[in-house]
Amino acid sequence: MGQNMLSLTDQRTGLQFEVPITDGTIRAADLKQIKTSPDDFGMMTYDPAFLNTASCRSAITFIDGDKGILRYRGYPIEELAENCSFLEVAYLILNGELPTDEELNDWIALVKRHTMLHETTKKFLEGFRYDAHPMGMLISTIAALSTVYPEARDIQDPENRKKQIARLIAKMPTITAYCYRHHFGLPYIYPDNDLSFTENFMNMMWKLLEPKYVANPILARALDILFILHADHEQNCSTNTMRAVGSSQADPYVSVAAAAAALSGPLHGGANEEVLHMLDEIGSKENVAAYVKKVKDGHGKLMGFGHRVYKNYDPRARIIKWTADQVFTVTGLNPKLEIAKELERIALEDEYFIKRKLYPNVDFYSGIIYEAMGFRPDLFTVLFAIPRVVGWLAQWQEMLTDPEQKIARPRQIYTGSGERHVVPIDKRHGSTVGAD
Ligand code: SDX
């Protein structure tokens, strides 16, 4: 095999160039030397939606889309889901290594210290309508926390970053539960630090008048596994947003709010809620074939299907299907599971989906579990954001400490008008000034 060099010939000038290949990529900046004249800006790459562009070097998550592989810091997602807790995996994603028992205890203690919300934040939440969508409430409240912790702007101080990271991870479940309770006019339940991260979330969500909330251990473990599966996924849309906003040195709260806003879109994290609406629209197994035909005719998408990277089964979807069986032993079978399984069966046999390599993704089955556990569909994307805040913050920190990174500012291909000059309004084409 030859050297790691790419030889390019510019047919416009006949000039030849040698560009180094590193990690299977060439630096776009190395193309700037390719010019047609001295005042030419130089060659750029054009890659709308970054379909084939690496924006960073990252050691956090590895995905092989063809083989359906997902690893956090080298550990297969299947092993992490089976052997670890969510906070243990959060420590791994943030620090690069699995914690010792002492490190894990210290980490849990740090997170537990920050589960409460400043009382003014509760008043902020009171300002929302009872039927406000929880994602809108979450995004706004996270951004508002930047006013509660102004010291978070000192993003270059590692100890300060660590404190804000712990605060955000700890407060996401509290904000989520308060959004849920606000909808029903229920009193807020304060965190109970005797409970695990996930049990405490369930406590703040569902405790009523019992003296002490006791979480069903099967449901608590299922939710913990779902949090592990959603914790990071390399350079997805919301993580790209977190890196871009964070690159201007904005504080982590407004950066996370921006990332959560990106996640809320129906093509990204909002898909889990859309899957439930799709299954409700289909209504029964018998209607699945007609719905699939509608999609193939170009009317809408199969929500929860397809992925930019996975061109094979999303490994998380497989684990979620197993987790669903555990949940249904407690909650009873969610009838929508039969519709989902029929949809998957038909789609996986249909040339339209096979040709486009469309398989169930992480969002296809997660909503069915969440609904069976008692979560409303409008909370599903918030349930995605709770664990994903770990990935956003780990990627944010990696960006800040990467000497190659600076403020994100892509270029463009200009397609607008050439230079032209202002005409007084009464002289413009079609002006009615002075007509009467
Ligand atoms: C997440 O990036 C991540 O890692 C995201 C995520 C994470 O953990 O962060 O994994 C989480 O966001 C999962 C994806 C959730 N979204 C959905 O389930 C929404 C439905 N899926 C699609 O919108 C779509 O598959 C995307 C957005 C997920 C991926 O879109 P791409 O890569 O831009 O692919 P595309 O839209 O160019 O589609 C290629 C072809 C098109 O057909 P043709 O124009 O070639 O005829 O496949 C078709 C699309 O129309 N297609 C679908 C489809 N997804 C793609 N057709 C029907 N149903 C679908 N779901």
- Please write the string of helix (H) and strand (E) elements: EEEEEHHHHHHHHHHHHHHHHH
Q: What is the makeup of the main sheet?
A: 3 strands, antiparallel
Mean pLDDT: 96
What's the overall geometry? Answer: globular
The number of E-state strands comes to 5
Helix content: 40-55%
Number of helices: 17
Pairing-aware structural class of the strands and helices? mainly alpha
Q: Give the termini distance in whole angstroms.
A: 80 Å
Distinct compounds present: s-citryldethia Coenzyme A
Strand content: 5-15%
Rg, Å, rounded: 25 Å
Low-confidence stretches: none
Taking strands numbered 1, 2, ... along the chain, how are they ordered across the largest sheet? Answer: 3-4-5
Structural description of this entry:
The protein has helices spanning 77-83, 86-95, 101-112, 119-126, 134-148, 158-184, 197-206, 217-229, 237-246, 252-263, 271-282, 288-296, 315-331, 336-349, 351-355, 362-373, 380-400, and strands at residues 5-10, 15-20, 61-64, 69-72, 75-76. The mean pLDDT is 96. 49% of the residues lie in helices and 5% in strands. It starts with a strand and ends in a 36-residue tail after the last helix. The chain is mostly helical. Helix 2 packs parallel to helix 17, helix 8 runs antiparallel to helix 13 and helix 9 runs antiparallel to helix 10. The chain contains 17 helices and five strands.
